[in-house]
Amino acid sequence: MKLHSVEMPGKLVVTAPATGQIISEIDETPVHETPLYYKRARTAFFKWKSIPTSERLVYLKKLKKYMVEHMDEIAKTISKDTGKVLTEAIVADIMPTLDAIDHICKHAEKILGRQKASTPLLLIGKRSFVEYMPRGVVLVISPWNYPLQLAMVPMISALAGGNTVILKPSEVTPLVGKCIEDLFVKAGFPEGVVQVAHGGKEVGSAFTKGKSDYIFFTGSVRTGKIIQEQAAKELIPTTLELGGKDPMIVFKDANLKRAAKGAVWGAFTNSGQVCMSAERLYVERPVYKQFLKILKKEIDLLQHGTDADADIGSMTFPGQKEIVKEQLDEALQGGAQLLTGKPSGEWEEGMFLPLSVLTNVKQSMKVVQEETFGPLLPVIPFDTEAEVIELANDTVFGLNASIWSKDMTKARRTASQLVSGAVVINDVIVSVANHGIPFGGTKDSGIGRYHGEAGLRIFCHEKAIVEDWGIKKTEIQWYPYKGKYPLFIKLFTSYFQERRNWFTFLKSFLALMRKN
Ligand code: NAD
């Protein structure tokens, strides 16, 4: 049974995962309304794309103002809907969204404005530019773990560039989906510019088939592949932000206390339901035992709960609890041992899970190879830098990673060897909080990047423009060709040879002009 959002025909019934109480009911978007949504989005696009970027940013500023004024209310909605603690709702969902709005408001006009490009000498007399033209209707499909940030950041990036947006938020956190819809209404966005389609995978699938101009998807590898296949049929470009199995590497010269605190936060924030959680911890053998002791001490200090002081909230999605259980059971049967936490048979009812650290783990186990997305951390000792690089790269994922060492040369050298969309040195996860640098995965962790310049430009067609003043009567490469071939040979040989021969170049160029 689905404990969280119990689906009834046409309704999403919202159950708070932390308490098990039914807290709301939200109307599902009927699948047959999909064309209507697209029609409204296309109509709105014609006006929205025509207004200057600066005017569109005024709407984003109004959105930010409203969010700042209602921060506590939004945090409580996120916390109720996901089970995450309030501090995490504000720090990891609301703050990055507000920061992204700030960043976009500061840089969008420049990033999306006409850019002058250099023009090669062979195109003498012309000037080159790049323009950014909005694509049209952008479909954003988002997950439940950071339901505000992971929906709103792509939405506002697409909107700033002049696109209209249809959001299909996760059915697991529909209250946040409704909250996002209300935020854009409150900020006064024109009708049809932002629409939210509520519902599960049937609704997501109907909108994916609805011929958007771009699909921005965040979610599982499995769904990402389905969406990519569908998009390929219509040649719809996509960004796919998918799963992770991020390694954390602790060298013996690291600040061990800091690394242990970092590991605990990196592995257990949001109950481990983070695409960039530290999901595998590799510790250099000479400090392995000492590190485990510090790790256990730090974990024992943490409090589960729902109040404002709690450190660890509940799991959000019941299906995820099953995945954690399966990986834990398999590891224990294979000889792994629990440093903290309990075997699944001793777990309490409900959605709060103990924080489990596993030792005596094999690299081939599911808990090391597959995404866990829960509070379960395997720790593995290593002996050499080369060995740990190999182990870290040995999964199908490559989203983020962290390296802990006081030797920055070694840390940077190791970072360069990791097949990963991002690497953080002596900290964890935090690269996502810098909106100015690209975010995205390698291998099964996804396709494409957002945040920073890329985050705005992916939602636009890059249009190359070459200008000529139009004064000259003709061009050397235009007709007639008679007598030009030997002169072109001379022109290009003198130009492209190792050392340019400017005399021959000019002579043949003038001769070509005379042939016109
Ligand atoms: P999911 O793939 O089950 O669902 C994501 C969204 O896709 C939901 O809105 C869902 O309704 C929709 N969906 C499901 N099937 C669909 C279909 N056939 N067609 C269209 N839409 C469909 O993922 P989830 O369980 O919500 O999220 C957890 C996953 O997301 C984890 O794997 C996690 O690592 C990943 N994630 C990645 C990032 C990132 O930035 N790389 C961030 C957060 C989460």
Would you mind describing this structure in some detail?
42% of the residues lie in helices and 18% in strands. With 516 residues, the protein is an alpha/beta fold. The protein has 3 domains: 34-242 and 452-463, Aldehyde Dehydrogenase, Chain A, domain 1 (3-Layer(aba) Sandwich); 246-434, 3-Layer(aba) Sandwich (Aldehyde Dehydrogenase, Chain A, domain 2), CATH 3.40.309; 483-515, no CATH class. The model is unreliable at 1-6 (pLDDT under 50). Residues 141-145, 150, 168, 170-171, 200-201, 204-205, 208, 218-220, 223, 226-227, 241-244, 275, 371, 373, 399, 441, 446 line the site of nicotinamide-adenine-dinucleotide (NAD).
Shape annotation: globular
Number of domains: 3
User: What would CATH call the architecture of the largest domain?
Assistant: 3-Layer(aba) Sandwich
CATH fold call of the largest domain: Aldehyde Dehydrogenase, Chain A, domain 1
| Count, helices | 17
Corresponding CATH superfamily of the largest domain: Aldehyde Dehydrogenase, Chain A, domain 1
Over all CA atoms, what is the radius of gyration? 27 Å
Helix/strand/pairing category: alpha/beta
CATH class of the largest domain: Alpha Beta
